[in-house]
Amino acid sequence: MMAHNKTFLTIAAVLALSACTDKNPAAPTLTIKVTPPADYSVDETVHLVGSFNDWALEGDKAYPLRADKGELSATIPVTEKNVFFTLVKNKDWQLMPANEMAKSQCIYLYQATGSDAEMAVHIPLWTGDKPLKTAEPSLSGSIIQHKDFTLPQFARSSDIYVYLPKSYQHNTHKTYPVLYMLDGQNIFNAHSAHSDEWRIDELLEDLTTAGTLDEMIVVAVPNSAQRWVEYNPWDFKDRDGKARQGQGELTIRSIKDTLKPFIDSSYRTNPQPASTGLAGSSLGGLMAIYAALAHSDTFGFTAAFSPALAIENMDGKNVLFEAIKHHQTIGNSKIYFDIGQMEYGNYEQIEQLNSLLLKQGFNPENLKLVKDDVGRHCEVDWSRRFPAALEWLQAGI
């Protein structure tokens, strides 16, 4: 009888637990309502991809949008604090949301509220479409263009833009530190930017006026159509699995041996390494770290925004990590580097980079690692992190 009672009590406990479980609320949902371009056809497919489904376009995790009266929608469960997502047309990663100027847009971010929600997304165009209008120039402050500046290292020329601080014209005895920025077409001008611009000119105008940042000269150095090669310092395996010879050293040499002497002779600069910096994002961030490793005699401070951390050599080894392991000399460059959590799914690689630099002998006081839980791989977020990065780098200049 006692055993029977124990069995009954066990069954009752299981049933009670099941009843409690049934009463637990389901995960909140997010309904994303998309207004597609005006020429949208029902023959086109549009998929919602993001952190919620491992960015899958195929299989059980795929989220094709449903069409209803000219609007597309999908409802997803929200199980994470920050949901990152974008849209893909016809399952082609080259066809993603663009603005009216046909410039690619940053990945969308939804921050959970704990309850069901809706989010409206308007897509004027897809990347590759013909622009509906032309982006207007958006230069602020004093910016000088040096058109067709010759870079003998690449046997070509490039348009160089130089931002001068507000005090430059009237404080004629003052010299200024210089920051060289890669992917220069994206730095100052919405008209030339591939996607969004960094708005470095507007930021410096506002922040130096407020006294938050010290004044400096910024030189925007655009990339060429061969960016993938020119911004790789080491030989690497390309996306097709083929061996490629990196020309990153030539890129640094073009700045160090040709552009910097011109800037130093044309403007009132402080040419010393401690007052000379290099900044870049993605592959440009990889270049910034390379400059700190191999050219600390020129670049005393560098900023690597979302550096490319997945480039491998033909042996399948990370080119940056291998270079750090085998680097013989450690300079005194200050290195700022950051990453958004969603870019690689976690912070493991950026933490490995930090550990390798410390193990190789870098002074911990010269390293600044920033982890951005809501950071995305785009100019909007790099621009947002720029002021704090520069403030840290300027300390001691």
TrEMBL record:
Please name the GO terms that the record assigns under molecular function.
ATP binding
Entries under InterPro entries matching the protein: AB_hydrolase_fold (IPR029058), Esterase-like (IPR000801), Ig-like_fold (IPR013783), Mycobacterial_A85_antigen (IPR050583)
Q: Which PROSITE patterns match?
A: PROKAR_LIPOPROTEIN (PS51257)
According to its UniProt record, what is one Pfam family this protein matches?
Answer: Esterase
Transmembrane regions: none
Q: Which SUPFAM superfamilies match?
A: alpha/beta-Hydrolases (SSF53474)
Q: Which UniProt keywords apply?
A: ATP-binding, Nucleotide-binding
Q: Which PANTHER family match?
A: ENTEROCHELIN ESTERASE-RELATED, FERRI-BACILLIBACTIN ESTERASE BESA
What this protein is called in its record is Phosphonate ABC transporter ATP-binding protein
Per the UniProt entry, what species is this protein from, by scientific name? Alishewanella longhuensis
